[in-house]
Amino acid sequence: MNEELELVKRQLAGMKKIEQTGFTNTETATVYFREKELILEGIVKTLETVTVQETSEVEALKSTVKSLREEIKGQAKSPRELTRREFLSNLGKGLVAAWIGNHKTLAELSFSPNLKSDNWTNPKDVIWGEKGWSISKAALGEPMGNLATNDQYLINPIYEREILTEASKKSVMMHLVRHRPMAGPSIFLPTRDRGGVELHWLTAYGQQIKGSKPKGAERVELKAYTLAGYIPWFDEFGEDAFIELALMFIDEFIEVYGQEFDRQCLLADDDPFTGAMAVADSTKVAIQGANINALTWKDFRDAVYKVPAEERKDCSWFLNETVLNHAVNIEDANGQPIWRRPTESMPGKLDLYPYHEVSIMPQFTDITTDKPFAVFMNPRRIQHGNRNGIEIKKFDGTTESMEYGELFLRFRKRDGFLVTRPKGNIVVLKTKA
Q1: Residue 234, Cβ neighbours under 10 Å: how many?
Q2: Beta strands of 39-138 (E only): which ranges?
Q3: Cis status, amide bond into 342, omega within 30 of 0
Q4: 3-state helix vs strand vs coil in the chain, percent to 5
Q5: What is the pLDDT of residue 406?
Q6: Of 182, 232, 279, 412, which is the most exposed, with the fewest CB atoms less than 10 Å away?
């Protein structure tokens, strides 16, 4: 049998594996069904290349594709709704199944085994059948791998999106930066300075039109690395504990992931990425006073004008709430706050520009000499590379496990961060050396 036809059959067999679990919101469903449409388009192109000898079978498969397209359109209009309780119950059940190696339950919940260390197994390529797991892209008869000892699994992609939506509530930067999907360990991004296109006036008929094209773009590499964390676990499960287990996993994951996301965007110094506060080529501006106690609103005003007006209109301040509190309570010669009266709330802007309070930024009392403490920038200058997939694994090979019998559930997530075009676009406010 033609191997291309066999591949098509396997892809069609796996087309319904996700939506049976349901969706928690319409946005997730829309993205998912759009991806399904792209898969079907690829199948159609494959069928067009198959030799004439299998015409009858090709026509049957084309008919299947047509019916699936109609079915997907209907499901996309009214996707199966997954309640919050159902989501938590299914997630908890999947975590338990991964812990004990219950492959059938994992397949029913659209979790999938992850057998590769660098290029993770794509859940779309994994199919569960009568003989167990198989890879749709593998050659005929090729086994998927030794699943008897495999203990690492990828969470249902729909549940992954839900978890990351929860994580965004614990992060300041996740809503603000530019997100880029990554299919591999790195991608190269073109980055141009302002005025990339050259314009020429023609003042006479028949005048030569000079070449007008963008100036050469600098290509910068956005790399993704694996972030791992360990959640203390226990080995006694019951059906009534599924929701509690899911809540525990979500709470632990989103708390640490949200803060780490902000740290890589703002504070990280080659650890492993470099955030906006430490990036080279940004404009460093020292306050006028001798130390942080002398900080005034004029320091903020002087700093913003280091950024050109066309860039400045999209910029915001990022600083700790204690620094903001000091600034808005600066008093005049009569002891009255300059920015607000005692009965007024915090102002919505910091000297005409929006601000974001970030708890991981330096606190007012910890700011010593030559210390950066605030940054003014357009947050979309930060590129976040998102390699889909949250992997979970039972982890008992630790010192705590041997000495105290404590077990852990390890999670892994792959991300990349890159601050682009900091020169002339990002200002870091600091104390004097």
Answers
A1: 13
A2: 112-113, 126-129, 132-135
A3: no
A4: 40, 25, 40
A5: 74
A6: 232
Q: How high is the mean pLDDT of the chain?
A: 80
Contact, 290 vs 369, CB < 8 A? no
Helices 157-168 and 242-266 meet at what angle, rounded to 10? Answer: 60
- Higher-confidence residue of 175 and 331: namely 175
Q: What whole-number distance in Å separates Cα of residue 88 and Cα of residue 82?
A: 10
Measuring CA to CA, which residue among 420, 316, 317, 329 is closest to residue 361? 317
Q: 64-97: per-residue pLDDT in tens?
A: 777 766 666 655 555 556 788 889 999 999 999 9
Q: Where are the beta strands (DSSP E) in 85-224?
A: 112-113, 126-129, 132-135, 152-154, 178-181, 186-191, 218-223
The Cα–Cα gap between 433 and 291 comes to 9
The single-letter DSSP state of residue 331 is B
SS3 string, 169-228, reads CCCCCCCCCEEEECCCCEEEEEECCCCCECCCCCCCCCCCCCCCCECCCEEEEEECEEEE
Task: Tell me the pTM.
Answer: 0.76
